[in-house]
Amino acid sequence: MTGARSLDRARHDPLWSQLLADLRRRLDAGEFADAFPGELVLVGEYGVSRHTVREALRRLRDEGTVVAGRGRSPRLAEPAEIRQPLGALYSLFSSVEAAGLSQRSVVRTLEVRADGVIAARLGLEESTPLVFLERLRMAGTAPLAVDRVWLPHAIAAPLLDVDFTHTALYAELARACGITLTAGREDIRAVVPSEAERDLLAVGPDVAAFAIERLGLVGSDAVEWRHTLVRGDRFTVTADFSTRGGYRLGLAR
């Protein structure tokens, strides 16, 4: 169903919140591909005050969905693209902020646990305790990635006291643990997110994702195993190459 849906004044949630939800629904349906309606058009469509419309539009501006200047009608914003380089030890935190977006994380889990499969990938005994950190990474007000990291507890225990809401893991690893990664290996695959992952990332079934697996090294010692699921509609992997050096493309096995 396209077009405006009626708002329910008997509901507990405010009208601006209902309006915001319906505008997001219409945006997801591609209804405003040609032009985004102005304030007065929305007032007429939904039968609400201009104040209600402005509050909903303010939220859309804050999350980077629409752009509106003083005296100008709102318009759809070009989506900010997060770019990551191949062949470099990068930080997603830095890449998000380089795109002009605020970076924050919702910490879902920070604990000590044992995981035999991950420990083996780190070259450790299966019973070795690991620090596990799971975050929902935000770019602006919109979800960007689900990030899961495992590190040996013997070296990463101080991270259990860190607030990861707005800080980079590698910065805290250096500050609190005295460890700086020097190299690593990364595999990137295109995947279809599960329903639960789509809910976390706030994407529909037509949006694919990148699954990134990283083994981080200090010298020849493995100190980090990471699995990151990134929205494919907001993320680009870039590579610089030359006729001499080139770059390698691998086939998934």
Please name the defining characteristics of this protein:
single chain, 27% helix, 6-stranded antiparallel sheet, 253 residues, alpha+beta
Write structural notes for this entry.
- The chain is α+β, with helices and mostly antiparallel strands.
- The protein contains eight helices and ten strands.
- Strands 4-5-6-9-8-7 form a six-stranded antiparallel β-sheet. A two-stranded antiparallel sheet has the order 1-2. Strands 3-10 form a two-stranded parallel sheet.
- Strand 1 and strand 2 form a beta hairpin.
- Helix 1 crosses helix 3 and helix 2 crosses helix 3.
- The longest helix has 14 residues.
- The two termini are 42 Å apart.
- This is GntR family transcriptional regulator.
- Keywords: DNA-binding, Transcription, Transcription regulation.
- InterPro entries: Bact_HTH_transcr_reg, Tscrpt_reg_HTH_GntR, UTRA.
Order of helices and strands: HHHEEEHEHEEHHEHEEE
Average pLDDT, all residues: 83
Helical content, roughly? 25-40%
Q: Specify the biggest β-sheet.
A: 6 strands, antiparallel
Number of DSSP helical runs: 8
Percent strand? 25-35%
- Give the number of DSSP strands: 10
Shape: elongated
Task: Put the structure in a nutshell.
The chain has 253 residues and is an alpha+beta fold.
Task: Give the arrangement of secondary structure elements.
Layout: H1 15-28, H2 39-46, H3 50-62, E1 66-67, E2 75-76, E3 82-85, H4 92-98, E4 103-114, H5 116-121, E5 129-139, E6 142-152, H6 153-156, H7 169-177, E7 183-191, H8 195-201, E8 209-218, E9 221-231, E10 235-238
Parallel strand pairs: 3-10
Antiparallel strand pairs: 1-2, 4-5, 5-6, 6-9, 7-8, 8-9
